[in-house]
Amino acid sequence: MAKEFQKKRRFRDQSRDGDADEAMLNRRLPHSIEAERALLAACMRENSAEVITDCINGKINAESFFRPAHRNVFAALLDLNDQGREVDEITVEEKLNSMGLLEETGGRAYINEISESVGSTAFATNWIEIVKEKALLRQLIRLSNQTVEKCYEGQDDITTFLSEVEAEIYRIGESQVADSAQKIGKPLDKVIKMINDILAKRHTSYGTRTGFLDLDRMTFGFHPGEMIVLAARPSVGKTSFAMNIAENVSIPGPNNPDPKAILVFSLEMSSESLAQRVLCSRAGVNMNKLRDGFSTREEQQAIVEAAGEIKKADIIVDDQGSLNILEVRAKARRVSSRYKLGLIVVDYLQLIAGMDNRASRENQIAEISRGMKSMAKELEVPVLVLSQLNRESEKEKREPRMSDLRESGAIEQDADVVLLLHRPRSDDQEENQRAEDVEKIGLILAKQRNGPTGSVDLAFLRKYTRFANYTEESPVGGGFG
């Protein structure tokens, strides 16, 4: 009697969670209720439209969910999204009620239970992959069961039967793959337009211009989808150079009529410290003297003017520490949905947390590097990633090389452009320049996937923590200004 009750109960549970295939096999079909609930919760949170779009792009539909209640909820989410309505627990409940599915789904209590199952959408991409993978396995199991049954029934034309099975497997595989393939004519049109613009002198740089003339001549700017690595030893000026580029890209000026929004992940400095550095650099005011309470009227006026210019720019700073690569990508997607980004700056790569604490740091950095490159391609934005160099160049008293990139060789493989900042030790004028608070810094273009390599000189105005275009006559002035 107990066995019969357990059998009936198991069948009821299968009817609630799965389908007849599971009952027939007497085995649990692949699924993850936790991942399904987490994904649905993410779809009902603050940035629901972004997560739902990711689901659609990932080929997730209502049938991708194992539990029927979850299928109902996702169908309601898709309807609300298609109508352009806000998505939350209340609107989902109303939608399910209008569809006559609310009680069948579990009512208001279950909707609230789902929505409260996670507190962040940072791992939504992971949940999408889990739900997608389990759904694919269930599809293959169903097809395999059908194929076995037809084999037992016998087939008059085995060639036709094999062709039908092959076509079904191909259909399942095709439904899981994003439509990223395209005829070469579409990107070719963009290339031809770029060439025509260059020949017509409408663009000296086709990508996002940095404001540093020699660098822009060699790279034609930073291009969408590129991962640019800027590496140096500590205290050489990585952050200052990156923020000078961000400033040149985002602040309107005579030489920058088309300013772009910038997203900065500042994992090392607080947003206040970063803002202070950008303000003093832009105003041409010594930050150390300002901290000591010394400033002239002219400097105070310069600070006011610089603050007004910076406020007009779309510079978005995220200074949350201990982010992992999935959280970085999720935040970037969110900002990209609100602003047309011209550049993303990450300061710096080695401060990003690994996803798997059991993996070696080298493997973690390799995973982070791949994630950065994927983010650049996904958002079609150049990503400037700051990185540390090891001590080898200092020990050997030589210029840095790509092999000096710290903790992983994957960085140089993933990067489209590698820039190495260094102090030229052989410069006879170094001491004089230091005395004048103007230092010549070398910028090595160590790798460029689609262009030449080489090096350029930059002027570093140390008391303003500002880089500028370098000239022999006067190593000052630079950027778009």
Automatic annotation (TrEMBL):
It catalyses: ATP + H2O = ADP + phosphate + H(+). GO terms for biological process: DNA replication, synthesis of primer. Coiled coil: none annotated. Keywords: ATP-binding, DNA replication, DNA-binding, Helicase, Hydrolase, Isomerase, Nucleotide-binding, Primosome. It is an enzyme of class 5 (isomerase). GO terms for molecular function: 5'-3' DNA helicase activity; ATP binding; DNA binding; hydrolase activity. Its EC number is 5.6.2.3. Residues 201-474 form the SF4 helicase domain. InterPro entries: AAA+_ATPase, DNA_heli_DnaB-like_N_sf, DNA_helicase_DnaB, DNA_helicase_DnaB-like_C, DNA_helicase_DnaB-like_N, DNA_helicase_N/primase_C, P-loop_NTPase. GO terms for cellular component: cytosol; primosome complex. Residues 1-11 have a biased composition (Basic residues). Residues 1-24 are annotated as: Disordered. Pfam families: DnaB, DnaB_C. The main replicative DNA helicase, it participates in initiation and elongation during chromosome replication. Travels ahead of the DNA replisome, separating dsDNA into templates for DNA synthesis. A processive ATP-dependent 5'-3' DNA helicase it has DNA-dependent ATPase activity. Belongs to the helicase family. DnaB subfamily. PANTHER family: REPLICATIVE DNA HELICASE, REPLICATIVE DNA HELICASE DNAB. This is Replicative DNA helicase.
